[in-house]
């Protein structure tokens, strides 16, 4: 079984990646599994790709190993793409999913369902010692609900209806989410790249 380090401290992402990579026989190690505690990496970029590169390259340099990082978020059309790269810290630096959802629903309170289009975006960066970092992107289109439904997943999953679904992402099983998600779609791109390289 191969091992891969993912430069994340987000438990929801770790769960997604463990399931998504299990079919390749790849075991996931996240920053939560490491013995030494890794200081929080400041996400100072102004795009998903820049932030993913900062996370992957910082940890790759620290361990001299290949490292994957994920920078992701939700883009809401009625909010001109916000919260975007600020999705985790939308309602404050403490990164509270409930507070983020409440803020989002409040900002959309006057916006009708058909104008609540949005997408999840995931950019994966793979940093390798002495080589240039590569990037793969995946999206998942959908709509923002009027209120939260479901308990699975993390982040904005309870208020996101994937296109064509009458269940929110948090009402889908993890297997169902991992068939259609932005993270899955980015991994499909990564798999294509791995086959060609
Ligand atoms: O409902 C959701 N389902 C998802 O599948 C999903 N993927 C991302 N997000 C949101 O976007 C932020 C990422 O921000 P982010 O990439 O900076 O990660 P993070 O700060 O949480 O952890 P780290 O990986 O940086 O350690 C997350 O916290 C969430 O709010 C999601 N919400
Ligand atoms: Mg982050």
TrEMBL record:
Family note: Belongs to the HAM1 NTPase family.
Names of required cofactors: Mg(2+)
HAMAP family, A to Z: Non_canon_purine_NTPase
Any one GO MF annotation of this record: dITP diphosphatase activity
Entry superkingdom: Bacteria
InterPro entries the record matches: dITP/XTP_pyrophosphatase, ITPase-like_fam, RdgB/HAM1
Record Pfam families: Ham1p_like (PF01725)
GO cellular component, one term: cytosol
UniProt-recorded name of the protein: dITP/XTP pyrophosphatase
Binding of substrate, residues: 8-13, 72, 154-157, 177, 182-183
Sites where the protein binds Mg(2+): 42, 71
Subunit-structure text: Homodimer.
Catalytic reaction equation(s): ITP + H2O = IMP + diphosphate + H(+); dITP + H2O = dIMP + diphosphate + H(+); XTP + H2O = XMP + diphosphate + H(+)
Cofactor note: Binds 1 Mg(2+) ion per subunit.
This enzyme's EC code(s): 3.6.1.66
Assigned keywords, A-Z: Hydrolase, Magnesium, Metal-binding, Nucleotide metabolism, Nucleotide-binding
Function as written in the Swiss-Prot or TrEMBL entry: Pyrophosphatase that catalyzes the hydrolysis of nucleoside triphosphates to their monophosphate derivatives, with a high preference for the non-canonical purine nucleotides XTP (xanthosine triphosphate), dITP (deoxyinosine triphosphate) and ITP. Seems to function as a house-cleaning enzyme that removes non-canonical purine nucleotides from the nucleotide pool, thus preventing their incorporation into DNA/RNA and avoiding chromosomal lesions.
BP terms from Gene Ontology: nucleotide metabolic process; purine nucleoside triphosphate catabolic process
Annotated source species: Sediminibacillus albus
Active site per database record: 71 (proton acceptor)
């Amino acid at each position: 079984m191969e091992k891969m380090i993912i430069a994340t401290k987000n438990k929801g992402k770790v769960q997604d990646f463990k399931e998504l990579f299990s079919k390749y026989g790849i075991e996931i190690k996240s920053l939560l599994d490491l013995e030494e505690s890794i200081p929080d990496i400041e996400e100072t970029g102004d795009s998903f790709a820049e932030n993913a590169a900062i996370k992957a390259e910082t940890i790759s340099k620290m361990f001299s190993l290949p490292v994957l990082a994920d920078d992701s978020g939700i883009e809401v059309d009625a909010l001109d793409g916000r919260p975007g790269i600020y999705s985790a810290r939308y309602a404050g630096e403490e990164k509270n999913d409930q507070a983020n959802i409440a803020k989002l629903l409040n900002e959309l309170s006057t916006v009708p369902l058909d104008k609540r289009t949005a997408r999840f975006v995931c950019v994966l960066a793979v940093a390798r010692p002495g080589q240039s970092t590569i990037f793969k992107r995946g999206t998942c289109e959908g709509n923002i609900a009027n209120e939260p439904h479901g308990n699975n997943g993390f982040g904005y999953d309870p208020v996101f209806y994937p296109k064509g679904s009458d269940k929110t992402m948090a009402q889908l099983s993890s297997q169902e989410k991992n068939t259609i998600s932005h993270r899955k779609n980015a991994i499909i791109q990564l798999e294509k790249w791995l086959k060609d390289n």
